[in-house]
Amino acid sequence: MSTQTSSTIQFPYKRTLGPVISRFFSELTAQRIVGIRSGERVIVPPMEYDPETGNALEPDFVEVGPAGTVVSWTWVAEPGKHHPLDRPFAYALIKLDGADTNLLHALDAGSEDAVSTGMRVAPRWRDEPVGRIDDIVAFVPGETPEGPAAGEAQDVQTMDYFSTITYTDVLSPTLERYAASMRAGVITGQRCPQCNRVFLGRGYCSVDAITLGEEHEETLPDYGVVSNYTIVTPTPYPGQKETEPFARASVVLHGDEMVIAQQQIIGIPVSEIRVGMRVKAQWFADDARNAAEITSKGWGTVAGFIEGWLPTGEPDEPAEQYMNRVF
Amino acid sequence: MGHEPVAVVGIGQTKHKKRRDDLSIAGLVREAAQRALDDAQMTWSDIDAVVIGKAPDIFEGVMKPELYLADALGGAGKPVFRVHTAGSVGGSTAIVASHLVSSRVHKRVLAVAWEKQSEGNAQFGLGGGKSGSIGAGGAFAPWIRAYIRKSGAPEHIGWQVAVKDRQNALRNPYAHLHLKDISIEKVRESPMMWDPLHFLESCPSSDGAGAIVLTDKAGGLAAAADGRPPAWVLGTSMRSEPSSFNGRDPIRPQAGVDCAWDVYKQAGITDPRNQIDVAELYVPFSWYEPMWLEGHDIAPVGEGWKMVDRGETAFGGSFPVNPSGGVLSSNPIGASGMLRFLEAALQVRGAAGEHQVDGARVALAQAYGAAAQYFAMWAVGSELPSS
């Protein structure tokens, strides 16, 4: 059975719209759709630069629609969570009255049978406009827009965009064995037969480009030396939980085989961390160990298994010997 | 038949700022590209191909932005493609564009690199979208500690570079930071961000773009005859190495040494300290100036900080580094390498205005990325290379 891990990344981006898209979105808040004139043509949505010649376009805006004609379409029978509607709908290319280009939008027609090329459609407006393309919730069959009475136009200069993406990883056989070993509280590395270097959960040697397998695996010590560190003053950003200066150290495992980066040194204030300090792994309790941080895009990590590293109190190792070992 | 000589005949950049709230991403790249075209006295239809560079898409949250930018860069019906080599990408973009000319695939190529950091958050992006990101500063701080310890450099060296580059930026109207009252005391007293790096020893977050137009020998000679001397490309190189293996020297990565010597060899440089007139090196954190002076064999190992200490890398010194103000003064990440490359070209064209280094005939530009593992470098000169 293969192990899957899942991770989700979320971030609120803030778009600067620039003068042209800003005008388009501002007009949407008053239930007006505008295009931009480019020679004889009217381009909708308006663009900053002519897509054929690359020339900058003068801010010559033209109101179009709101009704238009379906030029082409495709039926979405099973909408996903990122689709604009939660029921079956069509994505349609719509040529709004007065426009020379097609607008891509959702068409809420009820059933596939109700959609045809050449049909007339009109926008359904959002109840509370925010200045985004989905101020038009969808187009609907007919000539008549739906929605509340139009209000005053708002000045829209930016757009908030909340991005969220979930990755699912299927672990390689190397990472599977690595995770199983870490669950048992044992660090396992793979030794390259050519250069004798040891790597955690990579499945290959970074230097010699040789595939490393089960036959190259051996147990590594879970104690070593702090080779270098930094103390980070955290900056705020969405998802940041750190508020006080925190340290991240690199630990060279005993025998100088392997460096593990971005580790926490626990049990002492960050100001007392030293290069050359001898430390031992503090493992999470058996039932708290998990492989969630291991992904097929990275290498073996100890995150999720080792909470941090405790100073042993033994005399320091000489610092110079270790300082270059950071990653 | 050898390579076609390559000439930089157009250079443009935006005013770099914390937030260019007057421009979309398309408007930002356009501002730089239009200035480069104007400088080259060309129009959009003169361009055969467009090369776009930027750092990871997670910084702005626009996936494959090069597709959306084709319109803004006059790309319809032309080859348009994207280069991505982390922080070195601005340099790699210029190099890839130069190869399209030197290989005689195209005659006139537009290269544009950009970042609009204000739309997202680089600390978030570099931390893989998780809490506790160490950011670039936290990644490089341990190596900087190692450099300081091994070289025996006094701590004021870092402060001195931080002040010098900000003073240079005062000569450059496009630079993001114009810190008129910068001083050693201010740097020393600024908050410790990534021990041993202070806040003012670190680069800002910027919105910005840089662009160049490259052409062939005939185009370069025509520009010169018209009183618009080009910068001739003397050598280009890109090198990479893995981020992590036992025995790696991250203070002086072998890829950086090899990259430099590849460029020197192409450019006929045997003594970089004396044959190069000015250098634009990627210095996002002050200590990287002495580290790269050593990492590219401009100074002997352990001696880079002494060049700084003696004022040799200052504007008006014997080996000026970053007359533009460098990454420490403007950091639109994806464009930062391009800004080094285009500043080198400006210098040998004699077109750098108030930050012009007198008599600059050969200039070196360098950009590096990720865990100091990707390198892009070029040397440009005021004379058409003989071979």
Structural overview:
The complex is a heterodimer of chains A (327) and B (387). Chain A is mainly beta and 327 residues long. Helix content of chain A is 7%, strand content 36%. Chain B has a domain at 7-122 and 206-225: Peroxisomal Thiolase, Chain A, domain 1 (3-Layer(aba) Sandwich), CATH 3.40.47. Helix content of chain B is 35%, strand content 18%. Chain B is built from 13 helices and 11 strands. Chain B has helices at 25-40, 65-69, 89-102, 122-126, 135-151, 156-169, 184-189, 217-225, 254-267, 272-275, 288-295, 304-309, 333-349, and strands at 7-13, 49-53, 80-83, 108-116, 192-194, 197-198, 207-215, 231-240, 278-280, 362-369, 374-381. The model of chain B has no long low-confidence stretch (mean pLDDT 95).
Could you list some keywords that capture this structure?
A: 327 residues, 2 domains, five-stranded antiparallel sheet, 7% helix, B: alpha/beta, Peroxisomal Thiolase, Chain A, domain 1, nine-stranded mixed sheet, 35% helix
What secondary-structure arrangement, pairings included, does this model have?
The complex is a heterodimer of chains A (327) and B (387).
Chain A: E1 4-16, H1 18-28, E2 33-38, E3 41-43, E4 61-64, E5 68-76, E6 89-96, E7 103-107, E8 120-125, E9 136-141, E10 158-170, H2 173-183, E11 187-191, E12 198-199, E13 217-220, E14 223-232, E15 246-253, E16 259-263, E17 278-283, E18 306-311
Antiparallel strand pairs in A: 1-10, 2-3, 2-4, 5-6, 5-8, 6-7, 8-9, 11-12, 11-13, 14-15, 14-17, 15-16, 17-18
Chain B: E1 7-13, H1 25-40, E2 49-53, H2 65-69, E3 80-83, H3 89-102, E4 108-116, H4 122-126, H5 135-151, H6 156-169, H7 184-189, E5 192-194, E6 197-198, E7 207-215, H8 217-225, E8 231-240, H9 254-267, H10 272-275, E9 278-280, H11 288-295, H12 304-309, H13 333-349, E10 362-369, E11 374-381
Parallel strand pairs in B: 2-3, 2-4, 9-10
Antiparallel strand pairs in B: 1-7, 1-8, 4-7, 5-6, 8-11, 10-11
Helix pairs in contact in B: 3-13
